[in-house]
Amino acid sequence: MAKKASRKELESIFYEPLPVDARITLEQQSHILGSTTKNLNKDENFLIEYMKPKTVADTEDLTAQFKKNFPLKNNKTLKDNKSKRTKKKLLTSIEKRKLGLHKLPKTGIKYASLAPLHQLWVEYMENNLNLEISASGANKDGLYQKIAKADYHGCLLMVTRSKCPSYIGAKGIVVQETKNTFQIICEEDKLKIIPKRDSVFTFNISRWTFTLFGNHMNIRPSERASRKFKSRPTIDL
Amino acid sequence: MYFAATNGGGAPYFISKMNMSGKKTNTSGSDGFQRLNFLYQASIVALNAVPHCPQITSVFGKNMISIGKKLQLKLDHSVKRTICKGCKVLLIPGKSVEVKIKPIPASRKRKSRRGNQRKIQEWKCMLCSCVKQFVLNPGYSLWAEQNMDST
């Protein structure tokens, strides 16, 4: 008895008459649809009824419009239109962009998790530069060449001077280096993209501080490895 | 064959020659090799640190390959095999690759040798689904690895 009563209650909830707003919209829709005899022309009928109050054309013109055949239009879906990959290994640039290989996500990489990467970078630089010997020597050209050719992924960079005041003071670990930018993860776990042009960067290794002039570093990191740097005049910011 | 992936990479080595007088001098191209070494270890560290974003390792992989091309340095087999050909991501079996053992496809079988039941180890990158295939041959070792053993 209790079960039957609950069932009836549920049914009454399901089969309640619809609220007033819903009923009005349904009536309007049925008015637009009109009486449809064939299921095949259902869409056409709907369109014609919809267009009637909006255009000056007759129904015959409208039906003729809809029956026009566009011979060049593909009947294939978008998936079929995609070109299949002919080479198994190489990716097209569209595919690369879809995988997100060029752009790193703006959130999601945490500053704290990159600490071991920075430590590895410091070890690499200490081994590479051999600072105790080279920093105190008279001829520092070799040292400067090495700094210019070194890799900066994992470096803790800080922007000290820049033409754009909002970049000044940005500090973080470098995750990606491109021809024109340094992409940095700052302490708020955000990805900042800082253009190299018209900016001066500094970084520390043990007790030495180094400055990089962004204007002179507008080169792809891989090409920097083989580049011979000549002294260039700088215009102060 | 694999570097200590769980270790997170040890300290990078540096190549140097010893002079007759005992002073250290740099060999040509040692800078480039140091950079490649650092990039490889950094990609391992990065994959361990940020496992949900393997695109960082693809940045390192791309740099490794382009530096190798510019400075004409060759990557060792054990390093090259762990870089995906399509997206240049670091491949670690289980983390970024699916490794399967499959029978050799019919197109590759030599018709003359019957009974050649070779199998293939297939590495399929989880990111870009590019495939690397290694033929499993128990008696075979690479030329470079052969020379190392004999010294």
UniProtKB/TrEMBL annotation, chain A:
The keyword S-adenosyl-L-methionine does not apply. The keyword Ligase does not apply. Gene3D superfamilies: Ribonuclease P/MRP, subunit p29. Keywords: Cytoplasm, Endonuclease, Hydrolase, Nuclease, Nucleus, Phosphoprotein, tRNA processing. GO terms for molecular function: endonuclease activity; hydrolase activity; ribonuclease P RNA binding. Coiled coil: none annotated. GO terms for cellular component: nucleolus; ribonuclease MRP complex; ribonuclease P complex. Its main location: nucleus. It is found in: Nucleus, Nucleolus. It comes from the Eukaryota. One of its GO terms (biological process) is tRNA 5'-leader removal. Component of ribonuclease P, a ribonucleoprotein complex that generates mature tRNA molecules by cleaving their 5'-ends. Belongs to the eukaryotic/archaeal RNase P protein component 1 family. Component of nuclear RNase P and RNase MRP ribonucleoproteins. RNase P consists of a catalytic RNA moiety and 10 different protein chains; POP1, POP4, POP5, POP7, RPP14, RPP21, RPP25, RPP30, RPP38 and RPP40. Within the RNase P complex, POP1, POP7 and RPP25 form the 'finger' subcomplex, POP5, RPP14, RPP40 and homodimeric RPP30 form the 'palm' subcomplex, and RPP21, POP4 and RPP38 form the 'wrist' subcomplex. All subunits of the RNase P complex interact with the catalytic RNA. Several subunits of RNase P are also part of the RNase MRP complex. This is Ribonuclease P protein subunit p29. It comes from Daphnia pulex.
